[in-house]
Amino acid sequence: MLLHANQLSAETEGVFDVTVGHYTKLWRRARRRKVLPEAAELQFVSKQTGYRFLDVDPAMARVRLKNSGLRIDLGGIAKGYAVDEALKTLRENGIKQALVDGSGDIAVGDPPPGRASWRIEIAALRDSADADPVSIEIANCAVATSGDAFQAVQIAGTSYSHIIDPRTGWPLTTTSSVTVVAPNGMAADSLASAVSVLRAEAGFRLVETKKGTEAFVVTQRSGRVVTAETPGFRKLTVVRKSAPEK
Question: What pTM value is reported for the model?
Answer without folding.
Answer: 0.92
